[in-house]
Write a structure and sequence with these properties.
There is one protein chain. Strands 1-2 form a two-stranded antiparallel sheet. It is built from 6 helices and 2 strands, in the order H-H-H-H-E-E-H-H. It has a single domain, classed as Four Helix Bundle (Hemerythrin (Met), subunit A) (Up-down Bundle). The protein has helices spanning about 1-30, 30-35, 45-60, 85-105, 125-150, 165-180, and strands at about 115-120, 120-125. By secondary structure, it is mainly α.
């Protein structure tokens, strides 16, 4: 059970870290003005979505086992208002939220698989709570990547396989893994 659990926990950590890394790489391509730019009325900026994700993480993962994941002090609606704050301030809140999430996941033990947490009064098994978080953050990751690419326009540096580069990418991956198998 421990080996299986370690594999699962590693997959969760890898997934969360990849989400964080790609969101940060997208945000890093934007100027401060672009980070706060709304592409249309009613569409959130990259900064707003990042603030929402950080607020959600803070609420869900602080006191994960002992309190409801929707903390009474969370003001979700305020997460969707552009704070027009310096990037450093937003990133400090972002990093703190991710640190909390990753710390909880890193601390998990096999016995925790059967434990239950509550989110908005609804009981969740640990795997369901983690899957819910992966899905939620993945949804917003996609939004952020699309918005950042739209806002940046021609200067965008692809974080995924660039259009027209699939064959080149696949060949490079096949060669990489062929070399790794030989070692």
């Amino acid at each position: 059970m421990s080996d299986s659990f370690d594999t699962l926990k590693s997959a969760w950590l890898d997934t969360f870290r990849m989400q964080k890394r790609t969101i940060e790489a997208a945000a890093a391509q934007l100027s401060d003005d672009e980070l706060h730019r709304r592409v249309a009325p009613g569409v959130n900026s990259v900064a707003i979505i990042m603030n929402h994700v950080a607020g959600s993480m803070r609420s869900r993962w602080i006191d994960f086992w002992t309190t409801d994941g929707e903390k009474p002090d969370r003001n979700r609606e305020s997460e969707f208002v552009d704070r027009e704050e310096p990037r450093e301030q937003m990133m400090a809140r972002w990093d703190a939220a991710w640190s909390t999430l990753l710390g909880v996941i890193e601390s998990l033990r096999p016995d925790d698989l059967t434990r239950v947490v509550t989110i908005r009064g609804e009981p969740h098994s640990l795997p369901m709570a983690v899957c819910r978080a992966i899905e939620h953050y993945g949804y917003h990751r996609g939004q952020i990547l699309m918005l950042a690419r739209t806002v940046k326009g021609e200067g965008w540096q692809w974080l995924t396989i660039a259009p027209g580069k699939t064959n080149e990418f696949n060949a490079a991956m096949n060669e990489k893994h062929r070399r790794e198998r030989r070692v």
